[in-house]
Amino acid sequence: MQLRLLKRTQQKDLKNMNLIKKLPENLINQIAAGEVIERPSSALKELLENSIDADASKIEVYITDGGKTLIEVVDNGKGMTFDDLKMCLERHATSKIGDGDLVNINSLGFRGEALPSIGSIADISIDSYNNFTNEAWKISVTNNTLNRIEPSIIRDGSKVAIIDLFSKVPARLKFLKTNGTETRHCREVIKHLAMSHPNITFSFNVDVKKIFNWEKSEEVNFSAIKKRLMQVMGNDFVESSVSVEETRANMSLAGMVGMPTLNRNTGREQYFFVNNRPVKDRNLIGALRGAYKGLMENNRFPVAVLFLDIIPSGVDINVHPAKAEVRFKDAGRVRSLIVTGVRTALENAGLNTASEISNQLLNKMHSNSEYINNISFNTNDNLEIDTLQILPSSRSTTNVNNEVGEKEKTYPLGSAIAQTHGTYIITETTDGIILVDQHAAHERIVLEKIRAGFLDNNLQKQILLLPEIVELSEEHFEVIVKSLDQLAKLGLEIEVFDKNTIVIREHPAILDKVNFFILINDIAEEIIQFGNEFILSERLDNICGNMACHSSVRAGRSLLTSEMNALLREMEVTPNSSQCNHGRPTFIKLSKKDIEKLFGRT
Ligand SMILES: Nc1ncnc2c1ncn2[C@@H]1O[C@H](COP(=O)(O)OP(=O)(O)O)[C@@H](O)[C@H]1O
Ligand SMILES: [Mg+2]
After folding, report:
1. How far apart are CA 435 and CA 497, in angstroms?
2. Which of 58, 84, 94, when mutated, tests ligand 1's pocket best, judged by the most ligand atoms within 8 Å of its CB?
3. What is the mean pLDDT of the chain?
4. What is the pTM of this model?
C-alpha cells in the first residue's frame, strides 16, 4: 500500500500535489457575506450602522420587494472623501478602529467587511458628499466589476443602494421568505436601532409608500428614550410598563419593562442593548425570564426594552460576525443586575409579588457598590414622577362602603365593603373576609361565557357600528384568513379588507372595549404555535382566554359598590371561578378564626 502511494507520488508533478491555495478575493468576500448577510434586513442593518457611525441625524430607508431588489439608505452624516470612497469597498478597510484596540470600541461597525461583502453578492452604489472637501463622488459595483469613481450630484451625507441582493448567489435567494416577511424583518432592524438612537430621525418607505417617520428628540435624556419608545412600541407599551434603573459597580441597567399583564406569545418584543448596541443574547433573555418568574405563565413572554451599560473590558462584542451576540466577563453579575433591577421596578409598581429572599440578599450584597460615570443617557429627576404616573396603585383611591348589605353577607363571596388600589375588592362574609382580584375574576367570567356560548351555539354577538380595520403582518394575515370560519363560530365576524388588512364586523357581546389589534395578533400567534392543523375546539380555552384577557376589567379601574357585588354574584355562578385562566387565584379567603390566630387571640 505504502509502496503504491510512493510510486504514484513520484509519477506526478510535485507542484500539483500542493493542495492549499489562497482563496480569490471575491470568494473570501462571499464567504464573509454568508456569515453577515443572511437576508435583506441584515444588509440594511449594516447600512444603518454605517449611517449612525457617520453621525447622521436623519436616516431614510427605502426598500422594494422586501429589500430583495432594492435597499437604499440616505443619510445626512459626515460623508466620505474621494479617497475614503475608493477604500470603503476594500476588505478590512475601516475608519473606525485605531491601532489594534478591540476593547474600547465606540462605533457600531469596526470589522470593515460589510460593504465589500455586500458588493460580492449584489450590485451596490455609494454616493457621498464630504463637508470638508465640498466634493461629491459616486462609486459602484455592477456584475462584480468595480466601476470608475465618477462625480455625484448628492449635496449632503451619503446614499447607499444595494440592488438585487443575492443575485450572484442564487442558492441564498431560495431561503428568502415572502416580501411581507422580509419587510417585517427590515422594520424590526430599524425599530431596534431607532430605540437606542432617539436623536436621529428615522423614516421607512416600502415600495414607494411611506410607512413611518419617527422624528428625533433634541434633548439627550430618558424622556427622549421614552418618546422614541412611544413611536416605536406604541402608547400601549409605555402606559403599561415601568421604568427600570439599577446600578452596580462598573455596570448599570435602564429601560422599560411591561407589567406582567402585558405579555406575548413570543419573545419577539424583547429588545436588549449592550453599550447602546442592539444584541440578541441568551444570557440577557434568560435573566429577563428569571425576573418574571412566578409572575407570568411559562409559555408567555414579557415585553421589554433594556439598556445595559458596562465598562468596555467587561464585555467582548467581537464574538459574532454580525455582532448580535456578546460575551460577558462576569455573566452572573449581569444576570443579577437584570433580575434585581426588573424585579424591583415591578414590585415598586405595586404588583402583588412575594419578595424573594434571594433578591433581598442580592440587594444587600451590592448596596455599597460604586456608580459608574459613563451611562449613555441621564435618568433625570422626571423619571420618578413618570414612574408614579403609571402605577395603578397610586392612581386609584380606596373606595369604602360603610353600609354592609346584611343580606349579601350570606352569599359565599359575601358583600363588597371596599375596593383598594383600584384592583382588589374586600368583602365581608358571615365568617370572615375575602380579597378578590377583580381583573382575574372578570377574566374568568368572560372566558366561561364565551366558551359556553360557543358550545351551546348561542353566543350573543354584537355588531360594531364602526367596523374595526386591522392591518397585520403577512404571516398573521395568512393564518387569520385561513381561520375565518372557525373564528366566526367564536363570534368574531372578520372579512378580508385589503392586502394584509382585515375588517372586524362583529364580536362576542360580552367583550367590552377590545383592543382588536392586540387580540387578533395574539390569536394569530396562538394558531401559528399550534401549527397548520388548527382545530378550534382543542384551542378553545386559549383563544377564549385571549379574548377575555383583552377586554376584562383591568386592574386599576374603580368600581361602584353595586358593580362589585354584581361581579361577586357572577363569580358564584361561574364554573372554575376560583382561578383565572393563567392559573392565579381570583380570591383569597381569611376566616374569622384565621384572623384571630394572626392576632394571637386564640
Ligand atoms: N453612510 C456612510 N457615511 C460615511 N462613511 C461611511 C458610510 N458607510 C460606510 N462608510 C465608510 O466606509 C467604511 C467601511 O464600511 P464597512 O464596510 O461597513 O465597515 P465598518 O463599518 O466596519 O468600518 C467605514 O469605516 C466608513 O468609513
Ligand atoms: Mg459598517
Report:
1. 46
2. 94
3. 81
4. 0.61
